[in-house]
Design a protein that fits this description.
Shape: globular
Mean pLDDT: 76
Order of helices and strands: HHEEEEEEEEHEHHEHHEE
Helix content: 25-40%
Distance between the termini: 38 Å
Largest sheet: 5 strands, antiparallel
Strand content: 25-35%
Structural class: alpha+beta
Number of helices: 7
Number of strands: 12
C-alpha cells in the first residue's frame, strides 16, 4: 500500500515540476495529496491466514480509521505457489469501516491475505506456512481493550436463542449465576471486587452462545462479522473497558471457570480489577457453549 501511494504522489510532484504552472498540473498535485491524506487517516489492513476451531482456513481484512464515505473492499485468500499465485477464496463488501472474514477449505500450503480498497490500495499480509488443518484448541482468549471497539456497520441480529432467557426480573440461569459466583470467588483471591451480573451484558453473552450453537462455529467474532464490543453496544450497554471469554465442551460451571483460570489470557480477564459488571451466557446444544462478557460502564 505504501509503495503504490508513494509512487502516485511522486508522479504528481514530477508533473508539477516539468510542466508550466497551469491548472491541470495543480489539479493533479492536489488529487495526489488528497489521496495521500485519505490513506493516512483511513487504513486497509490484512491479517495473515490461520486455521480456526472448525479446521477451516480463515483470513480477515478490514478498513479502519477515519474513513469518509463507503467503498468496496475485497478480501482474497491467496496461495503462494510457483508461477502466478492462486486465489483460493474471494469476497467483497461496500463499507465505510468494517472487518471482513473469509473461510475456505483448509489444505497444507503457503498462504497470504490480500486486501484491496480505494485509491488503488493493495495490502498483502505476511505469508504463513499451514502445515496442518487440525482445529485450533478451545477455549480462545480475547483481548481486554481499554477503549470501545469500532462498531461494525449493517450488523444483523443474533440468531434466536435455543434456550429462552429467564423471566421475572432474574438475571441469568442457575448455571450462569454459578459461573458468576465462582468467578467472583477467584477475583476475591486476587483482591478484586465482585462483579455484578448485569441483564444487558447477560443478553449479549447469551445471544452469542446461542448464535454459535445455532450456526455451529466458535469465535469471538459473530458469523456476521460483529465483535464482542459491537454486541455489547447493541444490547444497550455503554462501556469504557470490556473483555470476553468463550469456551466450548465444558460440562459444568466449575469446569469452565477452572479451564479459564488455567489459561493466561482468560485468567487476565477474570482477574482484571477494572471490570465491575459481568454477563454470562450458557447454551447446551452442540457444546455446551459458554460466554463471559466483562465491562466497566
Amino acid at each position: 500500500m505504501k509503495t503504490s501511494l508513494r509512487a502516485l504522489f511522486c508522479a504528481g510532484v514530477l508533473l508539477a515540476a516539468t510542466l508550466p504552472a497551469i491548472g491541470s498540473a495543480s489539479a493533479a498535485t492536489a488529487q495526489a495529496q488528497a489521496a495521500q491524506a485519505q490513506a493516512a487517516r483511513c487504513r486497509i489492513v490484512a491479517s495473515k491466514p490461520a486455521v480456526n476451531q472448525l479446521g477451516q482456513l480463515t483470513a480477515v481484512g478490514s478498513r479502519t480509521g477515519r474513513c469518509f464515505g463507503k467503498t468496496r473492499v475485497r478480501v482474497r485468500i491467496k496461495q503462494s505457489v510457483a508461477g502466478p499465485d492462486t486465489t483460493l477464496k474471494s469476497g467483497s463488501r461496500v463499507v465505510r469501516t468494517a472487518k471482513l472474514r473469509l473461510r475456505a477449505t483448509c489444505a497444507p500450503g503457503v498462504y497470504y491475505t490480500q486486501v484491496t480498497g480505494r485509491f488503488g490500495q493493495v495490502v498483502n499480509s505476511r505469508r504463513v506456512n499451514i502445515t496442518t488443518c487440525t482445529p485450533a484448541p478451545a477455549p480462545s482468549p480475547s483481548p481486554s481493550p481499554s477503549a470501545s471497539p469500532t462498531p461494525s456497520p449493517s450488523a444483523s441480529p443474533s440468531a434466536t436463542p435455543s434456550t429462552n432467557p429467564p423471566t421475572g426480573g432474574t438475571v441469568g440461569t442457575t448455571v450462569e449465576n454459578e459461573v458468576v459466583r465462582l468467578t467472583n470467588a477467584e477475583r476475591a483471591k486476587g483482591g478484586c471486587g465482585p462483579l455484578t451480573h448485569d441483564a444487558k451484558l447477560r443478553t449479549a453473552a447469551f445471544n452469542h452462545s446461542a448464535d454459535m450453537s445455532a450456526k455451529n462455529y466458535f469465535s469471538h467474532d459473530s458469523a456476521d462479522g460483529r465483535s464482542f464490543g459491537d454486541r455489547l453496544k447493541q444490547a444497550g450497554f455503554s462501556f469504557r473497558a470490556a473483555g470476553e471469554n468463550i469456551a466450548k465442551g465444558y460440562q459444568t460451571a466449575a469446569q469452565v471457570v477452572q479451564g479459564w483460570m488455567n489459561s493466561p489470557g482468560h485468567k487476565a480477564n477474570i482477574m482484571n480489577c477494572t471490570y465491575t459488571h459481568i454477563g454470562v451466557g450458557h447454551v447446551v446444544a452442540g457444546g455446551p457453549y459458554w460466554t463471559q462478557d466483562f465491562a466497566k460502564p
